Amino acid sequence: MSNTTNILTTEEKAFIKAQGLDTSDFIDVRGMGGPKNYHDMVKAKGYMYVISNYCTQGHRLKTRSGRCIICDTRNIAFQKRDSIGGTIYIAISGKYCKVGIIDNKRNSQDVLSHREFQMNSEGGYGGREGWKMIKSWNVERDLGKVEREAHRLLAKYKVDGKSYMYSYERRNAQELFECSIQEALDAVKQAMKTTL
Ligand SMILES: [Zn+2]
Fold first, then answer.
1. Together in a domain, 179 and 147
2. Residue 185 and residue 95 in one domain
3. What pairs with residue 50 in β-bridges?
């Protein structure tokens, strides 16, 4: 455990608290240069955030990939989604498979049923209804990475340009694949094996 409380300024501590993070989530990497020098060490020690050299705007709080979380607080959400555990699932509708994630620690039937309901509301995901959850796994960590890897493995089956309306917005179905259930199952299992 690095003791960061003496290093952090009052403003930094206030920011950390306001974002729902904790000072113990941060490790001091000042003087180590760019993220390529510290990323792997930080990850191995189980930290998601660092106190590093100043960004161009004079901030020191970054993700372990070196993205300033004060300049763009969305980096906190990306970092959390990438690193935390949760549920990865496969849903099917006709000849289409959807591989998605739920960044919620509880892999309860309620959470899955709610997501299935969302997929079938307002015209349905990808403009289709009849989505059914067929399989889900609990992933301890790196949920976003497992998802990206599964999507990469299924890339050749990706249904491109399938836009649809949702809440009066035109959206693109990024998680839609025209493949067999077995191919989707294999991709998710492979992604968990290589990522975790
Ligand atoms: Zn910054």
1. yes
2. yes
3. 27, 62
Distance 79 CA to ligand 1 centre (A): 16
Q: What is the whole-number distance in angstroms between the Cα of residue 59 and the centre of ligand 1?
A: 4
Using the mean position of ligand 1's atoms as its centre, give its distance from the Cα of residue 69 in Å: 7
What is the pLDDT, as a whole number, of residue 82?
Answer: 78
Residue 170, domain extent: 86-195
Q: How many domains does the chain have?
A: 2
pLDDT category of residue 27 using cuts at 50, 70 and 90: very high
- Quick: pLDDT tens for 104-113: 766 578 889 9
Please tell me whether residues 117 and 55 are part of one structural domain.
no
35 CA to centre of ligand 1 in angstroms: 15
CA of 70 to the centre of ligand 1 (A): 5
Return the higher-pLDDT residue of 182 and 45. 182
Last residue of a domain, one of 56, 83, 110: 83
Q: Residues 130-146: pLDDT tens digits?
A: 999 999 999 988 888 89
**Mean pLDDT, residues 92-118 taken together:** 86
Q: What is the DSSP string of 72-98?
A: -THHHHHHHHHHS-EEEEEEEETTEEE
* Within a domain: 58: yes
Q: Tell me the CA distances in angstroms from 192 to 44, 133, 145, 150, 160, one per residue in order.
A: 18, 19, 9, 8, 25
Task: Tell me, yes or no, whether 47 and 129 share the same domain.
Answer: no
Ligand 1 midpoint to CA 67 (Å): 8
Q: How far is the CA of 7 from the centre of ligand 1 (A)?
A: 17
194 in Cβ contact with 172 (< 8 Å):
no
Question: If you measure from the C-alpha of residue 74 to the centroid of ligand 1, how many angstroms do you get, rounded to a whole number?
Answer: 12
